[in-house]
């Protein structure tokens, strides 16, 4: 955490009106011969949120809703089509701006979803973890680098002797520990975690999540956590944002969102969590699937699946409405048509 962030109380990261459009059109000649227009996918369509130092902000939603694209926009793997990414008062969204603030880039790292694909299979683990140390010039002496790699491996629950092994010699959970050690090697303050446990067994997921919480507490880390699993998000997050078809439809602090969700889509996701306590909470079934981002519905993108949809929902995009502890973009909430919510006894 920077001293400036401590003194001013400003968010560490602020995302404003973030958009990313991908051109997935067929080649020009094919479009001419077949008389087809260009095909554009609005993967992220006006997302805004902020994360305070030391917090965990989670983005949840079904596959294809734009969560991972937001993560890649923040760390600079993609450049925004519109909007801004601001890190402690410095704009880093555009590639040119990010190059001007290489010190900020060094303070951000990403943990990827698939530990089987994110590690170079031809490199020993020691070299994989040492790469950020050497690239950032944090240590020059080989012996010092080797010692630091051993410390990082110990920190994530592995042995310094594991530095001599190749990734294929580890289990999935152990590989993700290596990925976490590599991310920590550059001494970051902000970690973007793109579904870091979804490729792992449930028992191993719990171990990795506990490790990440311990590291956050001991090192003062700030997390952006990407997941489609609300049960996981409940246990790791301070705030939660719910995405649907590229838009942030609701965000709130974790307790508020789980105890009193506003948006019908958020309620649908919570309904998917098994009611093991048999509270008798009434459920509103929601049919259908996420529409194609190539041809999104007009108005509120959730209206084809929403039991509360009105004519206004079919024609007008809802604006975010603030409430105590968060905001929601829903005409039914704005018009007072939302029925009361009976939460489960435990998430």
Give structural notes.
It is globular and about 70 Å long. The chain is 35% helix and 20% strand. It contains 14 helices and 12 strands. The two termini are 31 Å apart. Mean pLDDT is 88; it is low at 1-7.
**Helix content bin:** 25-40%
Overall tally of domains: 1
Individual helix count? 14
Overall pLDDT score: 88
* Secondary-structure element series: HEHEEHEEHHEHHHEHEHEEHHHEEH
The CATH topology is given as Rossmann fold
Shape: globular
The low-confidence parts are 1-7
- In the CATH hierarchy, what is the architecture at level 2? 3-Layer(aba) Sandwich
| Extended strand count | 12
The main sheet orders its strands as 6-7-8-3-9-10-12-11
Q: Rg, please?
A: 22 Å
Largest sheet: 8 strands, mixed
Q: Which class best fits the helix and strand makeup?
A: alpha/beta
Oligomer: single chain
Strand content: 15-25%
First-residue to last-residue Cα separation: 31 Å
Structural key phrases:
single chain; 347 residues; alpha/beta; Rossmann fold; 8-stranded mixed beta sheet; 4-stranded antiparallel beta sheet; 12 strands; 20% strand; disordered N terminus
Topology:
Elements: H1 3-8, E1 13-23, H2 28-34, E2 40-51, E3 56-60, H3 67-75, E4 82-87, E5 90-91, H4 95-100, H5 102-106, E6 108-111, H6 125-135, H7 142-155, H8 172-185, E7 190-194, H9 202-219, E8 222-227, H10 230-236, E9 239-244, E10 247-253, H11 254-259, H12 264-271, H13 311-315, E11 321-323, E12 326-328, H14 331-334
Parallel strand pairs: 3-8, 3-9, 6-7, 7-8
Antiparallel strand pairs: 1-2, 1-4, 4-5, 9-10, 10-12, 11-12
Helix pairs in contact: 6-7, 6-8, 7-8, 8-9
